[in-house]
Specification:
The chain has a single domain (about 5-59), classed as Ribosomal Protein L30, Chain: A (2-Layer Sandwich), CATH 3.30.1390.20. The chain contains two helices and three strands. The protein has helices at about 15-25, 40-50; strands at about 5-10, 35-40, 55-59. It is globular, with a radius of gyration of 11 Å. GO terms for molecular function: structural constituent of ribosome.
């Protein structure tokens, strides 16, 4: 599988509880925090739900 880098670019303040939990489940803690994960269907689905809060790069 390909690895991707996910960076939180916007705050989760004033977002729905579901979006807050999705960002936390991805492992993001605060703005400009980045993680590298394997791209699988579950991760891609979570990214689609919060794509307005994160930036994604292929590695």
């Amino acid at each position: 599988m390909a690895k991707i880098k996910i960076t939180q670019i916007k705050s989760v303040i004033d977002r729905s509880e579901r979006q807050k939990r999705t960002v936390a489940a991805l492992g993001l803690r605060k703005i400009n925090h980045s993680i590298e994960v394997e791209a699988n269907d579950a991760i891609i689905g979570m990214i689609r739900k919060v794509n307005h809060l994160v930036a994604v790069e292929n590695i």
